[in-house]
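Mods, move this if it's the wrong board.
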Amino acid sequence: MVVPEKFAFSIPAVFSDTEAAPLLCAGAIGYRSLRLTHLKNGRTLGLTGFGASGHLVLKMAKSLFPDSKILVFARSAEEQSFARSLGVFWAGDSGDAPPLKANAIIDTTPVWNPIVQSLSQLKPGGRLVINAIRKEATDKNVLLTLDYPKHLWMEKEIKSVANIARQDVEDFLALASRIPIRPEVEVYPFEEANRALHDLKNKHVKGAKVLTLK
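Not the wrong board. Structure tokens:
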């Protein structure tokens, strides 16, 4: 396979091909998202959704900000349990109230309800970083429930993540190899790509999904 040199990256030897696959997408975009939070050690981070990107952000954050508490808002009990197994301070549903509010929250979901819920869980001056390529229209009407004093006042910010820069990937791979970050993956043969997509949508698996070519 031939690719343009500027889109090729040197993969640290510590990672297998299966481990490297989610690092180049979910991991790198998670790295950029975490960087955009401007989080400092000791401050609280929230994560909405806990799939491929979310669990890698958690591993990064625990290494970079060891004194920070991490909150996970996930819709399924399986995802919440997975987050607890990785050492989060608190895990619950997006509508639940954690014991403390966050300085920053990263949203990795394709829907709107977690956006509104996250804004209510931010501290004054907090930042919500939206790590999503798109948002579905199914629950867009929830935006009509935005309440200025509750969700937006006190200098809260919303920041979107547009693209991953080449430098993001290079910096993240270096960081991931130092920690090192070991993605949780479920492997599917390429012939079962449709099953992988079905499982991704229905949340039957945890962590990242990797297709293998033989």
